[in-house]
């Protein structure tokens, strides 16, 4: 198959694919950062939300029929999608559709598991008449062209294909782990095993599911309805659906390939405070693994129309400056110093203050003479003048959350500021 025919083949397949983005999870390991928003709605990278990455992957892959399944505290997520993802043209059959759990189309319960979330919306999914269904997790950071995965699914005459990558054994305990044969057919699958099975070529790693699945649509409908009738099932893809198909149906693995074709494909589960801080901090390095400046694979989002970032004052002790940092629109750095930090939009940093290794979410103001190190500051926080955080973690832990890696999380509620803003 020549390259032109291959491209047309993949394009036809993606046009017949409906993507379902599972975006209902709270993300409890992010602690107070998800008290008022779902994990997929978490800001990331200075101007994006986590969910922008799988949604952008869909658009860039040629998949323009997308449904987002929401559940936990979804207002912020829904508003972001309405503002930032309404550019698709309905008259061309393109859409990003929201499927809230509260519809109670099948019963009066919330989504019981990932498979149940899809099953409860089967009538809507069927109405779009897709030939293939792509199921995605809405809370991971990566770039991926889904077209080749769907094409390989079709070429292998698979019933289901599972996206996977190799991860360290200790990390694999949090994922579905599989073993495959030389044809990449899945022979065994265990969800969150206590002792993950290592890969044959590297005893320190395991082959883990990315939570990315391709199904033949009719096959998925049948399996979801079968699973829904089982009282002992938790109605989850990893725990129930995949293991039940191994050995009786054609279930294959598809190894993750980064669109940048790097030796180590970039994929991050930013599900803990430390992982979230580290992934954002990676972006301010000279050559980060995740290239946000890639014009060939852009990450789309909603962004307010804001003025450029501004740096003022140039005295020895009062100089507005930032080094090895990212500063978003609307920020005002007034005689303060920033080093190895990432600032989201509309952050105001007042004179004689300093930030180091800080992640500052939107609409934060930091008073004068503050010193903050290795912190995540939630949206809407006001840091009073003369505040020092990050130098004495034992004292910090009395007021804030301090992670195992020494990252201090600061929310409005911790400072007695009842913002309750879920944006």
From TrEMBL:
Name of the protein in question: Glucose-1-phosphate adenylyltransferase
Transmembrane segments: none
InterPro entries the record matches: ADP-Glc_PPase (IPR011831), ADP_Glu_pyroP_CS (IPR005836), GlgC_bac (IPR023049), GlmU/GlgC-like_hexapep (IPR056818), NTP_transferase_dom (IPR005835), Nucleotide-diphossugar_trans (IPR029044), Trimer_LpxA-like_sf (IPR011004)
Keyword terms, alphabetized: ATP-binding, Carbohydrate metabolism, Glycogen biosynthesis, Glycogen metabolism, Nucleotide-binding, Nucleotidyltransferase, Transferase
Assembly and binders: Homotetramer.
Annotated site, Could play a key role in the communication between the regulatory and the substrate sites, chain positions: 71, 110
HAMAP family for this protein: GlgC
Task of the protein: Involved in the biosynthesis of ADP-glucose, a building block required for the elongation reactions to produce glycogen. Catalyzes the reaction between ATP and alpha-D-glucose 1-phosphate (G1P) to produce pyrophosphate and ADP-Glc.
Catalytic activity: alpha-D-glucose 1-phosphate + ATP + H(+) = ADP-alpha-D-glucose + diphosphate
Pfam family, one: Hexapep_GlmU
Family classification: Belongs to the bacterial/plant glucose-1-phosphate adenylyltransferase family.
Keyword Transferase applies: yes
PANTHER family: GLUCOSE-1-PHOSPHATE ADENYLYLTRANSFERASE, GLUCOSE-1-PHOSPHATE ADENYLYLTRANSFERASE-RELATED
Record CDD domains: ADP_Glucose_PP, LbH_G1P_AT_C
Residue ranges occupied by any Nucleotidyl transferase domain in the UniProt entry: 19-283
GO molecular function: glucose-1-phosphate adenylyltransferase activity
EC number(s) reported in the record: 2.7.7.27
Pathway(s) of this molecule: Glycan biosynthesis; glycogen biosynthesis
Domain Glucose-1-phosphate adenylyltransferase/Bifunctional protein GlmU-like C-terminal hexapeptide: 307-410
